[in-house]
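Page 37, continued from 36.
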């Protein structure tokens, strides 16, 4: 079984954000950092080299023998877009998604080109509700 490479570490999220060359992406990441801190009440941690995560849970895959820790929620300011991690997936949040603005998504990632493309209040609602659901699912306080 392979070792998981994306683990929490002591790197500074603010240092990571400040190293982003693209000014728009850097400013959006700074804004996201504040949004996530406000909504979750948790401190940011670096996961691997490019994910800023908030909180954590322990998972065991049903499809393989892999298990590990992962953030409850977080984001990554990628070159192509801002990747926002909603670990519950989006099935229970169709109403929010219908109001959030311009995005793409996959199973648990919301992809946004720039924050001005979306409704920040809807994003806050999405983050908050998904964290509550994750804490309930994994029996976290």
């Amino acid at each position: 079984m392979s070792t998981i490479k994306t683990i929490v570490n002591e790197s500074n999220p603010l240092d990571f954000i400040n190293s982003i060359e693209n000014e728009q992406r850097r400013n959006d990441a700074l804004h996201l950092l504040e949004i996530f801190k406000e909504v979750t009440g948790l401190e940011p941690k670096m996961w691997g080299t490019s994910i800023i995560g908030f909180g954590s849970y322990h998972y065991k895959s049903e499809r393989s023998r892999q298990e590990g820790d992962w953030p409850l929620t977080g984001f990554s300011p990628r070159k192509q877009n801002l990747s926002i991690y909603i670990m519950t997936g989006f099935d229970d949040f169709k109403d929010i998604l219908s109001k959030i603005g311009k995005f793409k998504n996959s199973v648990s990632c919301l992809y946004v080109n720039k924050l001005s493309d979306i409704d920040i209040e809807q994003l806050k609602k999405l983050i908050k509700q998904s964290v509550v659901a994750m804490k309930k699912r994994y029996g976290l306080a």
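Residues 8-135 form a domain with the Aspartate Aminotransferase, domain 1 fold (CATH 3.90.1150.200). Flag for discussion at group meeting. The beta strands are 8-9, 44-47, 51-54, 57-60, 67-70, 73-77, 82-86, 104-105, 109-112.
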